[in-house]
Design brief:
The chain is mainly α and about 70 residues long. The chain has one domain (about 20-70). About 85% of the residues lie in helices and about 0% in strands. It contains three helices and no strands. It has helices at about 5-15, 25-45, 45-70. Helix 1 runs antiparallel to helix 2. The mean pLDDT is about 95. Keywords: Membrane, Transmembrane, Transmembrane helix. This is Uroporphyrinogen decarboxylase.
Length: about 70
């Protein structure tokens, strides 16, 4: 399998996330995209991509937990 497809999948999730009007759905789609991009970045050894998206995944998780508590 070419890792390039994982990058395309991650991009699709990020684009879909920005099309959501519901903030919870936006966070979930964005989280999935960030996780895919983190894996993709690690697999191709693009550490800035992996690190940035890993941190963004944590931010999305934090906000999802916060939304869940409401």
């Amino acid at each position: 399998m070419s890792w390039e497809y994982l990058g395309y999948l991650a991009s699709a999730f990020l684009v879909l996330s920005l099309m959501m009007s519901d903030v919870t759905k936006l966070r979930w789609f964005n989280l999935i995209g960030c996780i895919c991009f983190t894996a993709y970045g690690a697999l191709i050894q693009a550490w800035p991509v992996a690190l940035t998206n890993g941190l963004l995944a944590l931010v999305n998780t934090y906000h999802l937990v916060k939304l869940q508590k409401r």
